[in-house]
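Dear support,

Our group has been running a series of protein-ligand predictions, and this particular one with calcium ion is the one our PI (initials K.S.) wants archived with full inputs and outputs. We had some confusion internally about which version of the output was final, so please treat the block below as the authoritative record. The input we submitted was:
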Amino acid sequence: MSLLHSWVASANAPDHPFPLNNLPYGVFSLGDDDPRCGVAIGDMILDMRAAEEAGLLGLDSGPLFDVPFWNEVMEEGPSLWAALRAQLQAMLAKDSAAQADLQPLLVPQSAAQMHLPFLVAEYTDFYAGRHHAQNVGTMFRGPENALPPNWLHIPIGYNGRASSVVVSGTPVRRPWGQLKGPNDAAPRFAPCARFDLELEMGAIVGQPSDGPVTVDQADDMIFGYVLLNDWSARDIQAWEYQPLGPFQAKATATSISPWIVTKAALAPFRCATPPREAPLLAHLRDTGPMLYDIDLSVDLAPAGQPATTIARTNYREMYYSAAQQLAHHTTSGCPMTPGDLLGSGTISGPERHQRGSLLELSWGGKEPLTLECGATRSFLEDGDRLTLSGAAHGDGFTIGFGTCTAEILPALENPYAR
Ligand code: CA
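Confirmed final output from the archive:
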């Protein structure tokens, strides 16, 4: 696989995130116009509603783009996904006869406001990063009990709130919550003082299930991937999490990047999960490479200050693939729906600079980070801007995710004060 050349000149740079090889799917608006579906190509966006209305897409199904979300495309299934991608790649390729028709339907990304690219049906977050689970378990329960006894056998997770999912750029407000008192003092209600990020990938389920599915079937059901930040209130979490797991600590917001990078675009970057430390039961066993080699990074910029890269890691550090997570999700018979979002779990590597949360980077606040501007951080401060980035690097081309960013707003006044 090498760079595919487009008549959109900006798409042909080897380090551009959105070449013809990528073609990620988003939803955008210009000014006061209604949001609509678009496809990123170089620095531009192809207006899919306009392309469909002009009869340029050549699909049997439709209309698919009279709505501002990609769920209807997902519901059509893998053969439509492949046909749409092939048609877009042909029309946007260098020397395509479609250039004259499509050129007027391109808008600059710099002028566009991005929206959630799909209706989030439901949201589940897993805890499937080996190094993250080891680090957090060590801090919460000691090194002997770091990994729960089930961890090497099932991808554990919890049902989150679809309503909490917001698109990159949406500010995130520091939450209030109930916090454990010092020593054995009574709990208190206060703004979160240990607000954190979690660097994750989000897998988007594009097909429904009715009953248990295999890992291979699960992989076929996945439509694409986004960057995901599972904002986490560590002090709320520490008080509430036993025995039922996260609840309010994870309910404030979950940010995702605005462009869905399709499974097809990521195909050249498939890689295997790490060696199994205990054999998996047959229904969860790996059947082929289903992780992806995607470089990930986290930047933190205090208000008015330049950003510092605080973490660099890779999606291939995960112990379980999204396909294994999805297969496990269905074992109970739980029906899955197009638009379901699965968070991978925090992606940390074995080295300190590869840790995907401040909880790990500052080791629970004991080892604060020093940023390039001189400020120190154990957890996020008001006014901080946090940015996740991700890209798969091929030979002469890049499959980029863009960024997933948000600014931290101060907590409200006590919402219960008279
Ligand atoms: Ca998480």
